[in-house]
Amino acid sequence: MRTVLRRPEFRLLFGGLLASMAAESILLLALAIWVKDLTGSDGLAGATIFAIIAPMVLAPLVGWAVDRYPRRPFFIVANLATAALLTPLFTVSESADVRIIYVVAALYGLSYLTLSALLSGLIQQLVPVELLADANGLLQTVRQGLRLIGPLAGAALYAAVGGWLLTALAMTGFVAAAAVVALLRVPETPSAGGELRWSAELGAGLRHLAGEPALRRALIGYGLGSLVMGFTESLIFAYVDHGLRRDAAFVGVLVTVQGVGGLVGGLFSAAMVRRAGEVGTLAAGVTLFGPAALALAYPTLWLGCAALLLAGAALPLITVGLNTLIQRRTPAGLLGRVAAASEALVSGPQAVSIGTGALLVGVFDYRLLFALVGLTTTAAGVFLWRGRRLSTPTPTPTPMVHIPLQRRPPAPATPTPRPTP
Fold this sequence. Notes:
Elements: H1 2-5, H2 8-39, H3 42-53, H4 59-68, H5 71-85, H6 98-126, H7 132-161, H8 163-182, H9 198-201, H10 204-211, H11 213-229, H12 232-243, H13 251-296, H14 301-329, H15 335-360, H16 366-386
Helix pairs in contact: 2-3, 2-6, 2-7, 2-8, 3-6, 4-6, 4-15, 5-6, 5-8, 6-15, 7-8, 7-13, 7-14, 10-11, 10-15, 11-13, 11-14, 11-15, 11-16, 12-16, 13-14, 13-16
Membrane topology: Multi-pass membrane protein
Protein name: MFS transporter
InterPro entries: MFS, MFS_dom, MFS_trans_sf
């Protein structure tokens, strides 16, 4: 990771992303808390997350737009637009204004999808192929670290001063990201422009994902695991309540433990890609989720902490493996559509899984559901591992070493010939 940070252009992009990721980490949970505070309803608070995920259905259109224009200017405009779309939150003051939060949450979800697709393209332009895993791994490590403190900080700020200051801080983060990336000098690849006819090209990302063997296997295996991974969002509350016999607030402690595991997974994700390839790294991440879920079927605190460390480490491996595979196997002119389509294909099953888990936990014993999650993700991991040879390990990056120029010895003097008389 230090190697990729030695590249000035990536270091500048990374600085801008720090600002936007911090804004994102404090905003997401606070929006749901705000709705809960205004309405007193858990269901309406949970609907805030659904509002953020709902725009994923527009992924083909978003990817088409991203591939039409140069990445850097589009990224700057998208960050400024994200800051602007948060301004209606300043008018929220009573329960009747909840609809404003939902509209902002949906627009933010659309912005998140757009920025994710743009970021994949920017990283592909700035970083050589052997450093893609390092760049993705570094970003995931920081994202996991922010998840340790961001949501708690956002909730604390909301409790102390209300939503207006939180909104102002989030807006500042997105404006700062736009300002920093504006300083970036990157050779822009020619956009496809008028060549992208929306009627023919909206499905190009999906066609590429289906036609490339490694990407196809990665999304089938991960999609299978995603169908049950979301169960844990509801099951963890039942685990704490009925298993550990503790207050619901103890979930925050377990989320922190999971965040520590995420930091570890992020630090080792690039090395895993170099050793096992992208599909192998994705397989390792999905497989780790299996024993973690099975361990949570037996409610013991020390075992639960170990399980959540495993689950936390799994998430960066999954994300880095999939993102690096997409960047390596996709032409630059198609990357926006492919990245947006893959985000939708991953987030869709997760959204369904979260809703299904919330329903099933009220009908079945949480231990049985954890066992189902463990067995399903293990099977998905095995399916992915059998296809690991579809992607080759990434070569180890060569450190940037400064080689001093050596002075050449002066040429020997040649005698000047005498003129012939």
